[in-house]
Give the backbone structure.
Amino acid sequence: MKLILVGNPNVGKSSVINTLTGSHFFASNYPGTSTEIEKAILKINGTEFEFYDTLGVYSIYSDREEGRVTRSLLEEDRHDLIINIVDASNLERNLVLTYELLERGYSILVLLNQVDRARDLGIQINVAELTQILQSPVIAFSATNNEGVSEFRQFLEQLIIKPHAAEDKISQQKGQQRLILTEDFSCSGNCGNCSISKATCSLDLDRKLAEKARKTAQMVSSVSSPASHNLLNRVQNFIDRPYIGTIVLLLLAYLGLVVLTKFISFSEGPISSLLEPLSNLLHNWILSVMPPGFFAVVLAKAIPEGLVIPFTIIMPAMLMVSLLMALLEDSGLLPRYSVAMERFGRLFGVSGQAVIPLSLGFGCRTPAVMATRILPNDAQRFIVITLLSIVIPCAATVGVIVMISAKFQASLAVIVLTMLIVMMILGMLLSRLSPREEAFIYELPPLRIPMAKNVWSKIKLRFAGFFTEVLPLLLLMSIAIRALIESHLLEIFNGMEHFTRMLFGIPAEAFVAVLITIFQRYLAPLVLLNLDLTAREATIALSMIALSLPCLPVMVVTVRELGFKSLIKILLMGFTTSAVVGVVLNLILPV
């Protein structure tokens, strides 16, 4: 059976699926987190239920991408039931979408989520009366404490016994709509002969939906004094103050960066000590089983290097970034960064909402590019994807840069400052090409203590990429780099030595590392490990690597999202940015 979840942003659709099925979806509480339709499967008594998690929408008639995708799924795909997730603490606004679904004749189950939060706010909802008014089943539910889970499973068991009870009631006649709002408003479905303009009709429908939702919410809910004004509520009220909140959030961001770098430095020693005996054992074993020669030397050096470096540097970085992002998402802090960065985002011609994909880019830039779908137009998406491709380093890159900076005593402060300056200059230049005109309204979810199961699910999902993508790539790249070194093929770049030293102040081999960023940015610094660099050379080379070309996976996703022409523009800007950074740093850094 196919079940489609539909609801406003921030109502907890993904958390509901996590609770019901145990599937590990991103349960981020900010609008647009489900940038693609996700699926989970639950089996009950041998019957398979497929849950489809749609984008968060305020209206299925929305012209934004999430509205079009949800509307297309509801209209084109066959489904057995629509599960309308409703936020019990914001009933009136959520019921507008409920009435839209009923207006189109869909058979729905209303899942009244976050009833525990509603009770804390002093809101009591008469579920039986709401069921009677909507003429649809309503279940009080809480993904936080599993309230309503058994009742929901019982409902699904009834569907197995009486499957036809959940079939759509919508008429199959093309263009026909069934309005249940008021007797004086009806639609024949024959829009060609209608005397009412489309704009007027839509406004009239919106008004009647909102009025119906308001009256229903008043009839079924009562408000008393909040159960408690706990510390979390006081913290939320403090953080949500415009100027104070911005300062607090920026301090938290700085603290997160400090924790990340300290954790990488702290973990490197113990992990290296644990892996060093294994590395030596592996090195000797490869030499003993392989015939002497070039390949034996390459593999004996490359394989231990390709395993030790990822586990000592990249793994801790990815783990900590995954943890920090999961905490920000599940606590409700991430969308508050959107509000705090709204004014700053205007400099770049984007809304503060851009902080969401930009923050995700510190984990992995590929899904961050996809997350730009939450932005209101293609102009803003191009700006943010360009910044992601050129400026934002993923977790693996951060780990490698920190490690190499420590090895060569490179100035990490210069690298970070350079990245910030380039981000501001590039963003402001792009904003002139695509000035932002429209305002944007944000909805802030409640601040809450992160749920351990949600945080753990997100960490596992993000961290799984270390074993499936990062580790194999690093191992292969380590072998390739070691083969180039042992074969002396890198010496063919010696002809560029005068050019690279005069222009960028780095050896030709280090410039090769910059070019390797086109495959994966975190692979490029591995070339530097095998070079003898000064602190100045390492600082310039790492800055050029950190601000260079998008990696191959980002290119593929960018073409899919914006087209090939946009990718060419980003590549040209990336190469130009990296070259300019190298030249400028070579001119201003003391020799």
